[in-house]
Fold each of these.
Amino acid sequence: MDHSATTPVDTLVVDAMLPYFSEMFGNSSSLHSFGMEAAEALSTARKQVADAIGALPEEIIFTSGGTESDNLAIRGVITHNSGKKHVITSVIEHPAVLNTCAFLESLGHEVTYVPVDAEGLIVLSLLERSIRENTVLISVMHANNEVGTIQPIKEIAQIAKKHNIYFHTDAVQSVGKIPVNVDDLGIDMLSLSSHKIHGPKGVGVLYVRKGTIIEPIVFGGNHEKGMRSGTENIPGIVGLGKAMVLAQQRLDTDSKYMQQMRDGIISKIFCSVADVRLNGHPTQRLPNNVNLSFKYVEGESMLMLLDMKGIAVSTGSACSSKSLKASHVLSSLNIEDDYIHGSLRISLGRENTIEDEDYLVESLKETVFRLRMMSPLSSQ
Amino acid sequence: MGIIEDADGVGEIGSTVDGDIINISIKIKDNVIEDVKFKTFGCVVAISTSSMVTNLAKGKTIAEALALTNKDVITALDGLPEGKDRCSGFALDALKRAIEDYQHKNK
Ligand SMILES: Cc1ncc(COP(=O)(O)O)c(C=O)c1O
């Protein structure tokens, strides 16, 4: 139940990939028939991805994953020799965005990190007010990987458009969970990653709307129209294409199924455990995300006890070498000290069953009870 | 695990700001730690070292318990994961505070 970290590759995706390892192993740049096979596979996958998000095939750049796509979007818009530029992002972005922004700052550019409210929604008025003369990009994630909050992307895109600024969104967690259409949302650039949607690891996409000017960050043999050089990972790209088709086909069914399970877990835990809170937004929330904080207990100890029961979850409250430290996301949500060290993220996937749900709820109740018995903070 | 209601000494370490809180209570008879219990809020390392410290201290004389080192605790646990040794000393500190508390009360 840690699907926001990664997902198993769907067997249909594996089947689609297999022929491209040893039989059709060509280099898409070669002119002979082996190369043609690879080029054809590449173009099919490009169309599959484009169709799934409402883009044109030529707007798709294959990369090594979500991290590289975020890097390319954010570093790419700041063209060389263009002077001091300003970028706007949020405080709850993934490190792939935050650390890229920090790098830009080290080069002398400026970055504004817009805060979020207690439920993780970006404060739109502050976002608009932080726009400057030299702002070139707004980058705000579609859905947050820890607390699952879904941002008002359409409104942000409109603000960006009004001021003639490019808008990028990291949609790594939202693709396959909620509808993502680049025209409906009004996005200029979008990052997605294959391994979060039952595809292979190490493949991703940056969608770049036609007319958007960015520079590459990797140079070489001019693959991907010069935007991302390097012989393409054909099996991976074929797998991503297939995974996108499946995600699109199953979106309605899967998201309804996961949302039911999500709401079931939340209500069962709230009915049977005292002193618990839901982190993130109650409704503007990924259908597969449950993020709870329990008073009197610590996140990592819950994680370990659940792991012993065969349940994989994650926590935003980890024991580091200096102190018990809450993640940057939880810290931005203004969660009371009593709750911030006891967070647990349960991220569901389509292969989780009703039995899994019951087993999780029972195990979690037991774990919290056990740790509270041990805790000097609880009167239990 | 738990709290000794009529303890002869109690030691507590930590705060919610840093995270971990360890409470150790002891019962002393004829200079020997007859019973010792812990309550811990913290990560698995904090909990397991607390538990191990109480195991090691039980039945020892006060002098023997005061001579316990962090290394004894870690060895008894078969080592700790890398980077997780921060809180390993807390439980021992809590035990020593409990002993000090006892000695203070019985001066
Ligand atoms: C929101 C978000 N962005 C980016 C990434 C990085 O993607 P990848 O693992 O494909 O580099 C992740 C995955 O952890 C993520 O959750």
Note: DSSP finds four helices and three strands in chain B.
Amino acid sequence: MKAWLQRWRSRRRLTCEDVNRFLAAYLDGALDAHTQAAFEAHLQDCDDCQAYLDQYRKTIELARQAADVPEPPPALIEHTLSFLRKRLFEEPPFNA
Amino acid sequence: MPDLSRTPPAYDLEALKRDDPAAFEALVRAESPRLFRFLLRMLGEEEAAQSVMQETFLQAFYRIKTFRGDARLTTWLYGIALNQARALLRKNRRYAPMEEADLDRLQPAFSHGMYAQRYRPWPPDVLTEREDLRRLVREAIDRLPDTYREIILLRDIEGFSTEEVAQLLKLSEGAVRVRLHRARQALRALLSPYIEQEDL
Ligand SMILES: [Zn+2]
């Protein structure tokens, strides 16, 4: 089959809108083999979808990076355990 | 990413169900740091995060006998924490999140199945050299409606799998992906003006 015809056929299967709708499933590796092949064929051929996927991935990475929070206070665990001892038992129940 | 959810610690469930204090202490020690950070992201204040975490372990202790083991213990614990944190957020919310309709406007537009605008890849250094972006990203996440913010925190930041988030939120995996997708797209749209207007 001529290359352009093959491209046209595979591209015809999914629109940009379809590709967009499948992004989360694609990144989860949850597309069935047929859909994944059509997804990737469309992507090969479409600058907008490639660029959008790039931005989408970087958004996820930015979210992960931005969510850095300070280390928990050092006494956190001991405080929590003593709170629980007090609430649950009269006597210290944990191997204190 | 360091996907902590993929290496489940071996908790002694039988001992936990017998109310064995040592088993429970081991659970508290192992889960506290990560659970605290999750609650801190959710609630924005150390004091609130700590008190919700304590309440979460207390509830877990009371309810451990009802844990059926069809989810991981960690997922079950986060489910309790999430409910406690939601209740607190309802009581003293510090900001007004956007509405569902605002979120709609942040989704990409299509015309005849094609994107209605052109896109270009973002420069690679947005991930490494943009300290200023981190604050913007945090603010953007905080502006999302609660259900969208939660799903970004659980899936993209905590690294729970889609399956685990589905168990935690009592949704189908498909529903999790739809919500997650809308949240990510909204975030992308909120960030893109800052990334694209500055010449990198
Ligand atoms: Zn496309």
Note: Chain B touches chain A through 55 residues (CB under 8 Å).
